[in-house]
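Hi U.,

Before I forget, here's the chain from the pilot set. I'm dumping it here mostly so it's searchable later in email.
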Amino acid sequence: MAIIASKCPQIRVCCVDLSQKQVDGWNSDSLPIYEPGLQEVVESCRGKNLFFSTDIAGEIQRADMVFISVNTPTKTQGIGAGRAANIKNCELCARTIAEVSTSDKIVVEKSTVPVRTAQAITRVLSCNDKGLNFPVLSNPEFLAEGTAVSDLNDPDRVLIGGQQNEAGLKAAATLVSVYEHWIPKERILTTNLWSSELSKLVANAFLAQRVSSINSISALCEATGADVSEISKAVGMDDRIGKRFLQSSIGFGGSCFQKDILNLVYLCETYGLDECAQYWNQVIALNDYQKKRFTEKMVAKMFNTVTGKKIAILGYAFKADTGDVRETPSMFVVRDLLQEGAKIHVFDPKVEREEMWSEMNYTCGINKDNTPNLESSVVTSQDPYDACAGSHAIAVLTEWKEFKSYDYEKIYKSMAKPAFIFDGRNLLDHKALREIGFEVHAIGKPDPLSFSDL
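Structure:
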């Protein structure tokens, strides 16, 4: 919404939330989330045509168009638990809009939702007793965390879905006119509602599928002596395949990929498409396997035990240039090492300890109340050199660029010997590290100690 405000100074944009703390954060010099370039965009138009408020009813009444941008988490209990998306928040938004509105509004789904959610929203809105009309549009976001501002400034496409009737087409044209302020019309795609809703799930599923595909090959590379980076390059030079999302790693994380694939699996199951559901579920299974395989390799290479050993974790966010820890692969590696009795020291330039524990408790069910000595077993360091000092191993789990520039000779001297590096992002210069004295193991890379014919 900040980008819309910055590109359309004649349009008033107000973001509303129930949480005063969140609103205060957006009105401060320290935004609630970290995203490169976002602070500058917000500051350029905040107080001019961009506002943040808890006056939900007042701002809905004032608006011509209302975007529903709420969380749709995976259900944790009940029918479809572990797979289906919980659209409770979307329904609550629709009920609030219907209740407080005094004039017609265009209602836009911005949240990622199961296909045909707009049908439920439309039914709720149509039950208003004031004779108001609320055409519903689907306008999913295709940005990526870490590059969100540039993605929104120069998107591959903008997708707008609406009902194929006079009211729906008119509403879609209104939203198109907003985006046309900075996006060429040929990149604005209009579809029916259901195609738009499903497209977002499919896009994320296809991207995650590519990650799991190359990660499956990384395991084969480690067993045969092939190099996954060379294979990615060779395969990616085929125009039919392309080179993006072919970087092997410890697995994908974040709030979207797993949630959206599980949602897709549940939709397939709901419509009796069991083979389709099994196909997409395997993308998740492979991702879980990759994370588990990484930890098991760490233990195996460190003489089959990490009990009592200090291990430095470089990177906890699920990807670089964000502080987001939702479903981060690092969390599962830390969990598994914790169960093995390791002493873990975590360094991440943007992740706060409170956020780390909140996600660990929510996703893994691990907290200080049910895990003895948790606080002392997992230390968060403010300095990477402190995190590495005295450690038996370093695990690189987020692709922060700064990790490449560290003084690894200094780090090596401070570590227990043999000193191990496990590169879960294939980020570092492995040859240079081995020359220093490190024993290096990486995703999909041949181990010189295991192959003599490289």
